[in-house]
Specification:
Low-confidence stretches: 107-111
Radius of gyration: 15 Å
Number of helices: 2
Number of strands: 8
Helix content: 10-25%
Structural class: mainly beta
Strand content: 35-45%
Distance between the termini: 24 Å
Length: 162
């Protein structure tokens, strides 16, 4: 079968507290039932920064300051979108280092149509490829000083958790 990719562009924040990372609990999509970074889709007529501010507020309840852009990575993950006839998601992720200024993390999603169900601080040693999205694993690589190459990362054996 021919691969048909759906390209998804998103902005994501890496928010740290010592060795803890602020993560969300994903409840839809290819990263369902895993930890993921707060962030998501850039809406039409929305800047990257505005999208990140909005997504962080919706998913964590935190108002943030953007410290710096860390880079862009892309991932290809097997995931069917029946309504689009696709076999894979081509996830283009723009990463920022952010600082939580105010608000508190939420135990449940703020927005009804959100694809996450709460946020929490997790020590990075507890975050693994088995329980986290590739975005979280990229964040940990950067935290640990790994400036890996920019080649697309294919996750052909990716399993969406039920």
């Amino acid at each position: 079968m021919e691969e048909r990719w759906h390209r998804h562009l998103g902005v994501y924040g890496i928010c740290r507290r010592d060795r803890d990372l602020l993560v969300i609990h994903k409840n839809r999509g290819p990263y369902r039932n895993r930890y993921d970074l707060p962030g998501g889709t850039v809406e039409p007529h929305e800047s990257l920064a505005d999208a990140l501010y909005r997504e962080f507020q919706e998913e964590t309840g935190c108002n943030i300051e953007i410290i710096q852009n860390l880079g862009v990575r892309d991932f290809v993950v097997p995931h069917k979108l029946e309504n689009r006839g696709t076999s894979h998601i081509h996830h283009v992720a723009i990463f920022y280092e952010v600082k939580c200024l105010s608000g508190k993390r939420t135990d449940r999603s703020v927005a009804e149509d959100n694809d996450s169900i709460g946020a929490e601080w997790i020590n990075i040693v507890e975050l693994t490829p088995e329980n986290s999205s590739p975005l979280v694993m990229q964040a940990i690589a950067w935290i640990n000083g790994d400036q890996s190459d920019i080649q697309v990362k294919r996750l052909d054996n990716w399993i969406v958790k039920a």
